[in-house]
Amino acid sequence: MKNTLAALGLTLLSLTACRPDKTPQGEIVSRQTPEGPVLGLSADWLFEDGRPELKPTAEPALQQLAQRVRAQPRTLLLVRCYTDSRGDDNENAQLAQVRAEAVAGWLRQHQVTVPMEVQGLGEADPLVPNARPDGSDDPEARARNRRVEIVLR
After folding, report:
1. For strand 29-33 and strand 116-122, is the pairing parallel, antiparallel, or unpaired?
2. Buried (b) or exposed (e) across 112-131, using 16+ Cβ within 10 A?
3. First vs last Cα of the chain: how many Å apart?
4. Which end of the chain is more exposed for a tag (fewer CB within 10 A), N or C?
């Protein structure tokens, strides 16, 4: 019984450590997906609301991201950017694409030499619903959905 509980405790601990909902801005979250390992970061840490340019204050998080990418040799990186569901779908997709290109460009300029594909996915594939069950706005959920992910292949 003790071993079973210990195993369950370890499983629960490892699952909790991967939960993106408790991640402070600027912290990189790792998770395993069928596509491969994914490194995720809040877009709010990297970009001003509605803007495509990287913030000057994003440098430490980007440095950490580049270091982690370089430490895991791969043949391809997918740089994906997501928005929340506010605003026009097409504008969100365009903003996400330009943001993904900005992150990929920064990584290239900082010695990440792996080939990269950029994907601006806008409000597609939210981590959580952008609204509460009663339909009211959920700013915390929207913030979780605004993210940059690097898929390591």
Report:
1. unpaired
2. bebebebbbbbbbebbeebe
3. 39
4. N
What does DSSP assign to residue 54? B
Beta pairing, strands 77-82 & 29-33: unpaired
Spell out the CATH class of 23-152: alpha beta
Alpha carbons 130 and 127: distance in angstroms, whole number? 9
Q: What is the pLDDT of residues 97-118, one digit of tens each?
A: 999 999 999 999 999 999 999 9
* Amino acid found at 13: L
**Residue 84: partners with Cβ closer than 8 Å, 6 or more residues away:** 92, 123, 126, 130, 142, 143, 145, 146
In this structure, are residues 149 and 39 in contact, taking their beta carbons and an 8 Å threshold?
Answer: yes
- Average pLDDT value for residue range 116-144: 97
What pLDDT does residue 103 have? 99
